[in-house]
Structure to design on (1448 residues):
């Protein structure tokens, strides 16, 4: 007997829901050490992602995927890190090296979860989005649905299921810090109650701007955005697409009404067409 | 090297769909089966029992092909039944699976009662159920793919259902025409021709609505599929029209139309992968959106 | 690190990483701290957040540069020129911290009139002996104050810090003052004026020609440092092997030490010279050394000829003033710790049973010994020289000349597998069936499988507890050496041979635990800490005696086990204790975190400023007190004047903070302790694409070249064929790998992050040589040629040196043919050529050539591959 699932967290937990947690990843202090990437793989027993030399700066894992749930991006640019710098020390070749640790955004309005037909993807009592690997049947719906290209299906050794960051559900539900955040030496990855993180981020943005960092901005902290705000948001030093992130992500299911509307119309047209085809002579 | 990049080493922002060819056929069989079921119901109501029986049979066969195709494409085929673990309104795949399950069973029951000449009332009830679900079955797949972040699909969310509906009509018409006795198959022919014409128009409408984003349809594999689809549909319609008294031509036409609708499905699928793979399609419209918001 | 030892008295970092957060300006030079000390780097980030200037100076733009507020690019091997430029700018413009310089350094001391500077001798100091290729350093001393030779200068070389620091021994200080001084620093032969003359030719323009750093930046650097020094502010230097791995490495550190003394930044919070060290306990393995030429606590290893008797040994090495005055107590307590009851006054406390050294027995000499078959067997533990050693190809061939080789490691490293998996075997230069070496591989237990201590880069001893039992045959080092010794002793039991007494009389009784009979590491720690006459653990090295009533395995570690408690195991969070966090682990000496911290107060004992207070004199209690353990005689008042005949620390004045030095002063001019000069001089690296623009003397005259058939040196600029190697080659680390790779290239999750050897080149060089990003390049020197993937990056940029464009090629050195992340070993390219003080190879600056494509041997074997540039 099937249960109707809705997306209305925390109501579904009637009381059992806890304060929503998430990440604030402050890329202005990321030293690109990749400890987060490794800690994640160690804790979650993830396989390696292939030994491929990409020649893309120091990034040899390339992107988030079923085997890589934290991914550190490296971007080399010929603009100064600090606008006010260069007082005498400038040799005329300004440059900066952006580093940023990407992760599942644990969207408030999560496309992956919304389109999942089996209920394998669910929202935890902490407000995070998690795949249950014992339920996922690998239908693949969530993969193109995610506006960030985060969740992916593991094809190696016939696994066939979708995988992504669980926000260390097996740690966080017991009050532990996620492995990646615990490993981060510079507190670039900050874990905690989302509201707190949003406040901290706002202050941080101010101080970074005062320090003269070029292009500092928050990304994903706005509950009014296309996914109603990220559970894991960022402080970036350039436009999102520079880091391989979408500038204005939208949960496609938000437009589901439109789609079913169009489908209904088309369906009606089909019915009419069929009916029309029966008018007229036999033979 | 460090020139200010608009994207990250040209890597895609979103993931490509993982679906294999089965899904193309799945779209085809589902669409065909759904439209055929509706044709069956309507012809039954119009009192054309012969046509209704054939249409029912066709839809039952087509719809019975869908589950195996879907299962084959799952990463974990053994877990197919988990599709019915929950009903998730926000998941077209979930709704679709339930509808497909219902329609398939109904069509099968109806066909069974027709063939064995048993339980005519129950048979007609089943036919009705299938027939009513038909339009939904043949269009939900359009919703299924538009409900993704793949630009060429999502941005065509208003146009895609009509493409699928028309294609379903065309394929159903063609298939039933082939299956039905000569004196019964007029409506099927009209449906096929109208559907083919409709799909041509709808596809054109979709591509022009997509504008820049429709580029994949004009490149590589998608382009070849789309062009083949257009030619087959046009040619097939013409032949079927001409085929009223020349069954040979009719059969060729029907075949072409079926081929055309298959090609269109694959054009759409491949275009999806291509548009997911190129960050420009994801990033550019979003940037314009942001820019617009800033200026306004 | 004798650069530090000779300047301040101890061979360890003068401060601790947490203290960097208190700095107003941090110069990171010769270190890639963010990549190599990522955890400690958080304190640099903290300082940056507080508004400190963070300046990274490196040939490459690295992850450290990316985190810094300023980045200066310089030519590899030219640091002394840049630092000299800073010193010159400070001295020419009177930017020094005058009061500090006058009272806390040897600026005022007058030097022997026989001393001649590089100014006078075109790049050489006085008394150079060309035939011996060494200096007689007697003329480098204080006037009328005979500074007897300290171990550092002996032909076996290899001084490590401390004993280099106790130069000044035997000096006759009168009331704490050397015989001749000029308080006004005007006398032409006083250190201050010598220094001024010595560096006068390091003008911004000259420095630019040498280093590629624009003159304006040189001035800016000096001004920025000066602006962030003085009473109210402090600046810190951070370095690591980007400085030490040069044939003048020790003098790089001296140059920074001189800047810090001139600006008054030593012994104060947020100041100092932070030496970032290597392996997790590399500091520990020089304190209690794995080195051939020193004993625990930086006591020199006796020499076969010169140190015949205990009496003579003690005379030579105990100094008149400063804490080295108690050297006999430290040394005799060490002998008691090792030979216990058997060590008696009658037999000189078994002094004769100590091994002796006869010459340079450092790592590379051993390698050559293997080649020459004078070294027949090798136990290689915790090292992967087939990858990590300069001229690794020669080292691998040397191993093939051994009779037997024992390798203890976690993995079958390139060293363990040299006989069947190496470039030589691959290329057919060596055939397995021709190699006679018998190789034994013994699996080692990892740190999680054993208890023990790490002494980290800031002298902090931290205990780790065993988490799991070692798997299979894996065993700890302690287990291996204890049981090896036990078995040897059993075999020798009953031997009447005098030569066996040394082994048989050793105190070799450690309690063992568990099935595998693991010796108790804590018992060893207790032995190191030492015991008093009452058999109880001693609390401080001041309690040690020279009469044999006390024992101590390493005098500087006295107190780590005070009161029978393992203080290294303390883990009180920093949030629950004072800034210095004295209850986290235990730091030598005496748990002091900032060394020479008496200098954080003025000569009257008052903090220089409120903002920078750390340790000060409390007249009320008559004690030194503050945030940290005072690094001073705790009840010696600031105005203390040594009475006649005072000895050791009592012979030093109350306003002299450098209590290990023979004169209590920081040494701007090092009258002893270094074999290649009392002051730094810019010498070109052994292999360099330009001539020395400052002096006729091109490179460090005392450098060790080890010229051998398979160890040729690239022709230097001016020499025949120099143009064959037009580019500068430098090698370094990546965050993703560890040294020779045994702990990273064999681990999937690390290997995938940097899966292949690559060379970093600028777009300009790529264009010049037709290198394609992601393609292949072949890098060659006169030793060898290797291939690597190409990474074209703006982080590399040519420098303009002496008016010409100079390209630099960078390579991480971690790679070898085994594990998951593979590649040729860049060390195959480098020559064995070394610094004369510490025998560190010059891995940071050589010359090379680069061409597109894979190396010839490879193409022969497999044919060109896709992606080959
Ligand atoms: N992740 C990681 N951490 C490590 C290690 C590791 O292998 N991996 N190894 C540990 C060990 S054993 C050690 S010794 C330390 C070493 O720590 P570091 O000394 O920081 O390591 P390196 O990368 O060898 O060298 C540092 C920098 O020196 C630069 N350099 C080269 N030549 C010159 C020069 O002439 N002048 C100047 N100013 N800079 C130059 C290089 O470009 C490099 O960026 O790291 C320790 N920490
Ligand atoms: N070109 C170039 N060459 C260099 C350098 C450079 O910068 N450039 N750096 C130099 C420096 S600073 C250093 S420190 C050396 C480092 O190079 P090596 O001295 O060769 O040291 P590692 O490569 O770290 O080898 C340590 C080995 O010990 C193993 N090991 C780890 N723990 C234990 C243990 O508890 N017991 C035992 N038995 N084995 C253990 C590890 O698996 C590893 O294989 O390289 C030097 N070589
Ligand atoms: S980022 Fe993608 S995978 Fe993560 S929650 Fe949002 S939609 Fe799902
Ligand atoms: S692949 Fe798994 S997680 Fe993704 S939608 Fe299908 S069932 Fe849900
Ligand atoms: S939260 Fe856990 S699962 Fe997610 S990235 Fe961090 S470590 Fe990996
Ligand atoms: S661990 Fe922290 S600092 Fe290191 S790469 Fe990840 S986010 Fe950046
Ligand atoms: S590896 Fe160990 S020593 Fe090195 S930074 Fe990390 S924690 Fe510190
Ligand atoms: Mo090292």
């Amino acid at each position: 007997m099937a249960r109707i699932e809705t997306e209305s967290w925390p109501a579904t937990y009637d009381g059992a829901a806890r304060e929503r947690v998430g990440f604030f990843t402050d890329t202005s202090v990321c030293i690109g050490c990749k400890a987060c990437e490794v800690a994640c793989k160690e804790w979650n027993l993830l396989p390696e992602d292939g030994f491929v030399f990409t020649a893309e700066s120091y990034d040899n894992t390339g992107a988030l995927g079923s085997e890589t749930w934290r991914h550190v991006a490296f971007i080399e640019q010929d603009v100064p890190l600090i606008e006010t710098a260069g007082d005498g020390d400038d040799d005329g070749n300004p440059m900066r090296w952006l580093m940023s640790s990407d992760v599942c955004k644990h969207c408030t309005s999560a496309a992956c979860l919304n389109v999942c037909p089996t209920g394998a993807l669910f929202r935890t009592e902490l407000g995070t989005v998690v795949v249950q690997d014992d339920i996922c049947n690998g239908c693949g719906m969530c993969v193109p649905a995610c506006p960030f290209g985060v969740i992916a299906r593991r094809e190696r050794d016939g696994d066939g299921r979708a995988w992504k960051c669980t926000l260390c559900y097996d740690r966080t539900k017991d009050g532990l810090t996620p492995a990646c955040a615990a490993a981060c030496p510079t507190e670039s990855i900050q874990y905690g109650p989302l509201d707190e993180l949003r406040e901290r981020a706002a202050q941080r943005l101010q101080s970074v701007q005062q320090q003269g960092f070029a292009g500092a901005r928050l990304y994903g902290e706005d509950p009014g955005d296309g996914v109603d705000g990220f559970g894991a948001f960022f402080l970036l030093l350039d436009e999102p697409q520079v880091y391989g992130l979408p500038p204005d992500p939208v949960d496609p299911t938000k437009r589901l009404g439109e789609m079913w509307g169009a489908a209904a119309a088309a369906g009606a047209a089909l019915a009419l067409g069929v009916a029309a085809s029966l008018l007229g002579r036999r033979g | 090297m460090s020139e200010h990049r608009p994207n990250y080493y040209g890597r895609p922002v979103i993931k490509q769909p993982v679906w294999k060819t089965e899904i193309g056929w799945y779209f085809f069989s589902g669409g065909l089966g759904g439209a055929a079921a509706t044709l069956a119901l309507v012809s039954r109501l119009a009192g054309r029992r012969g046509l209704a029986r054939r249409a029912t049979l066709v839809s039952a066969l087509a719809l019975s092909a869908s589950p195996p195709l879907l299962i084959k494409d799952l990463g974990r085929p053994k877990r197919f039944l988990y599709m019915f673990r929950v009903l998730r309104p926000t998941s077209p795949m979930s709704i679709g699976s339930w509808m497909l399950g219902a329609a398939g069973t109904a069509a099968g029951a109806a066909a069974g009662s027709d063939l064995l000449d048993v339980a005519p009332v129950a048979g007609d009830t089943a036919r009705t159920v299938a027939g009513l679900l038909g339009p939904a079955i043949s269009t939900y797949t359009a919703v299924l793919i538009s409900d993704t972040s793949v630009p060429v699909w999502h941005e065509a969310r208003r146009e895609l259902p009509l493409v699928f509906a028309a294609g379903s009509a065309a394929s159903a018409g063609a298939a039933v025409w082939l299956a039905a006795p000569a004196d019964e198959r007029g409506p099927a022919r009209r449906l096929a021709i109208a559907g083919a014409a409709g799909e041509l128009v709808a596809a054109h409408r979709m591509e022009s609505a997509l504008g820049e984003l429709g580029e994949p349809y004009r490149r590589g594999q998608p382009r070849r599929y789309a062009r083949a689809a257009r030619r087959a549909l046009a040619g097939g319609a013409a032949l079927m029209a001409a085929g009223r008294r020349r069954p040979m031509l009719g059969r060729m036409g029907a075949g072409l139309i079926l081929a055309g609708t298959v090609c269109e499905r694959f054009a759409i699928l491949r275009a999806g992968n291509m548009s997911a793979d190129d960050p420009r399609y994801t990033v550019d419209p979003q940037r314009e959106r942001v820019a617009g918001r800033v200026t306004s | 690190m004798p650069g530090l030892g000779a300047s301040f008295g101890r061979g360890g970092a003068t401060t601790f990483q947490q203290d960097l957060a208190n700095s107003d300006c941090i110069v990171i030079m010769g270190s890639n701290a963010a990549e190599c000390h990522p955890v400690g780097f958080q304190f640099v980030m903290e300082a940056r957040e507080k508004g400190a200037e963070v300046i990274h100076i490196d040939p490459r733009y690295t992850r450290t540069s990316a985190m810094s507020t300023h980045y200066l690019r310089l030519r590899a091997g030219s640091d002394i020129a840049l630092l000299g430029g800073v010193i010159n700018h400070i001295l020419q413009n009177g930017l020094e911290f005058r009061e500090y310089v006058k009272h806390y350094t040897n600026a005022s001391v007058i030097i022997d009139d026989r001393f001649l500077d590089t100014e006078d001798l075109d790049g050489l100091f006085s008394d150079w002996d060309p035939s011996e290729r060494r200096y007689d350093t007697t003329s480098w001393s204080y006037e009328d104050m005979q500074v007897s030779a300290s171990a550092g200068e002996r032909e076996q070389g290899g001084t490590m810090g401390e004993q280099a620091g106790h130069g000044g021994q035997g000096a006759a200080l009168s009331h704490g003052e050397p015989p001749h001084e000029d308080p006004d620093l005007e006398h032409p032969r006083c250190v201050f004026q010598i220094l001024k003359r010595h560096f006068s030719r390091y003008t911004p323009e000259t420095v630019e020609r040498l280093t590629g750093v624009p003159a304006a930046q040189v001035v800016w650097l000096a001004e920025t440092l000066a602006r962030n020094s003085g009473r109210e502010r402090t600046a810190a230097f951070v370095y690591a092997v980007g400085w030490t791995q040069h044939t003048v490495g020790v003098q790089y550190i001296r140059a920074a030490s001189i800047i810090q003394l001139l600006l008054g930044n030593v012994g104060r919070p947020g100041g100092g010279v932070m030496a970032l060290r290597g392996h997790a306990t590399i500091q520990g393995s020089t304190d209690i050394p794995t080195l051939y030429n020193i004993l625990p606590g930086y006591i020199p290893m006796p020499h076969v000829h010169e140190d015949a008797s205990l009496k003579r040994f003690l005379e030579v090495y105990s100094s008149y003033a400063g804490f080295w005055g108690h050297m006999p107590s430290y040394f005799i307590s060490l002998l008691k710790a090792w030979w216990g009851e058997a060590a008696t006054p009658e037999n000189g406390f078994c002094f004769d049973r100590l091994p002796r050294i006869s010459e340079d027995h450092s790592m590379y000499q051993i390698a050559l010994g293997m080649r020459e078959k004078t070294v027949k067997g090798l136990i290689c533990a915790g090292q992967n020289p087939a990858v990590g050693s300069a001229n690794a190809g020669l080292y691998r061939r040397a191993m093939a000349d051994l009779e037997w080789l024992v390798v203890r490691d976690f993995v079958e490293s390139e060293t363990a597998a040299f006989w069947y998996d190496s470039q030589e075997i691959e290329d057919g230069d060596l055939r397995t069936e021709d190699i006679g070496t018998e190789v034994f591989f013994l699996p080692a237990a990892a740190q999680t499988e054993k208890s023990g201590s790490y002494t980290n880069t800031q002298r902090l001893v931290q205990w780790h507890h065993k988490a799991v039992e070692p798997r299979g045959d894996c065993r700890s080092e302690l287990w291996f050496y204890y049981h090896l010794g036990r078995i040897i002793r059993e075999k020798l039991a009953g031997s009447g041979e005098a030569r066996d007494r040394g082994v048989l009389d050793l105190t070799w009784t450690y309690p063992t635990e568990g099935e595998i009979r693991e010796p108790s590491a804590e018992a060893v720690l207790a032995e190191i800490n030492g015991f008093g006459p009452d058999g109880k653990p001693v609390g401080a090295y001041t309690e040690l005696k020279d009469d044999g009533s006390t024992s101590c395995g390493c005098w500087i570690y006295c107190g780590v086990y005070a009161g029978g408690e393992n203080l290294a195991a303390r883990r009180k969070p920093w949030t629950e204790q004072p800034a210095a966090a004295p209850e986290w682990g235990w730091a030598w000496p005496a748990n002091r975190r900032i060394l020479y911290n008496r200098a954080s107060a003025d000569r009257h004992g008052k903090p220089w400023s409120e903002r920078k207070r750390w340790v000060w004199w409390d007249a009320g209690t008559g004690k030194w007190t503050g945030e940290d353990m005072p690094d001073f005689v705790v009840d010696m008042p600031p105005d203390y004047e040594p009475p006649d005949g005072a000895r050791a620390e009592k012979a030093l004045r109350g306003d002299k903070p450098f209590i290990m030095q023979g004169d209590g002063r920081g040494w701007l001019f090092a009258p002893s302790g270094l074999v290649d000069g009392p002051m730094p001089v810019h010498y070109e690296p052994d292999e360099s694409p330009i001539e020395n623009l400052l002096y006729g003397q091109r490179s460090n005259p005392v450098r060790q070249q080890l010229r051998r058939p398979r160890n040729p040196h690239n022709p230097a600029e001016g020499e025949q064929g120099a143009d064959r190697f037009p580019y500068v080659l430098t090698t370094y680390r990546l965050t993703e790998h560890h040294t020779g790779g045994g702990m990273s290239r064999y681990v999937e999750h690390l290997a995938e992050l940097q899966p292949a050897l690559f060379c970093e080149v600028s777009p300009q060089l790529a264009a010049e040589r037709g290198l394609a990003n992601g393609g292949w390049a072949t890098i060659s020197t006169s030793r060898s040629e290797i291939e690597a993937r190409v990474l074209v990056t703006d982080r590399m940029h040519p420098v303009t040196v002496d008016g010409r464009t100079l390209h630099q090629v960078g390579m991480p050195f971690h790679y070898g043919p085994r594990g998951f992340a593979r590649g040729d070993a860049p060390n195959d390219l480098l020559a064995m050529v070394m610094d004369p003080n510490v025998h560190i190879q010059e891995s940071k600056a050589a010359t090379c050539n680069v061409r597109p494509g894979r190396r010839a041997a490879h193409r022969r074997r497999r044919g060109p591959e896709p992606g080959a540039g």
About this structure: Residues 256-278 of chain A form the longest helix (23 residues). Residues 1-6 of chain A have pLDDT under 50 and may be disordered. Chain A touches chain B through 88 residues (CB under 8 Å).
